[in-house]
Specification:
The protein has 174 residues and is mainly beta. Helix content is 12%, strand content 38%. It has 2 helices and 13 strands, in the order αββββαβββββββββ. Strand 4, helix 2 and strand 5 form a beta-alpha-beta unit.
Length: 174
């Protein structure tokens, strides 16, 4: 029950842009979700940028919709090798490694609560992002990954919008 409430609070972050988390304080602040399209399917992904956020990942989440997941952002420091594990993660997940060219390099299956490392090595196309989705997702190596771009028509002209460097909305003031 508590984990379901936790995930629902994260979904509310998409609507409010920032949310203070009450569940144990693992995340002081969640900044945003990002809509990402892989192949022809849209996903609402929690963006994890800080080391603390990346370390926590989806630990403790016991259920989520097939169109939800997490985006681990390494784009400012792309890697040739990255490893993940599923410790304290109750759901089977696809671990999707995405290159700098925004194509899927590799898809691995994470076994719930496993402490075995899931590793991807890619020297030609460094890893810029890792996406975690339920194993119901339809993702293949070579799929193109598109990140939503904010368009002026997405903004309410009656409100003040504070934007992040990437153009996404950080906060909206009535």
């Amino acid at each position: 029950q508590e984990e379901v409430l936790y995930w629902r609070e994260l979904i509310n972050a998409f609507l409010t842009s920032k949310i203070k988390m009450a569940k144990g304080g693992q995340f002081e602040e969640i900044t945003k979700f990002k809509i990402v399209t892989i192949g022809d399917v849209e996903y609402n992904l929690l963006v994890l940028k800080t080391e603390e956020e990346k370390e926590k990942g989806l630990m403790g989440v016991t259920s989520m919709n097939d169109d939800e997941g997490a985006l681990f952002d390494y784009s400012n420091n792309s890697q040739e090798e990255l490893s993940f594990w599923m410790k304290d993660t109750a759901l089977p997940l696809y671990i999707i490694f995405v290159g700098e060219d925004k194509t899927v390099i590799d898809v691995k299956t994470g076994v719930p609560n496993s402490e075995d490392y899931i590793t991807c090595i890619s020297s030609e196309n460094k890893i810029a992002y890792v996406i975690e989705l339920t194993t119901n997702a339809e993702v293949s190596v070579g799929d193109e990954v598109k990140f939503e771009s904010l368009k002026p028509s997405d903004l309410d002209p009656e409100k003040l919008h504070i934007l992040n460097e990437d153009g996404s909305i950080q906060a909206t003031i009535d």
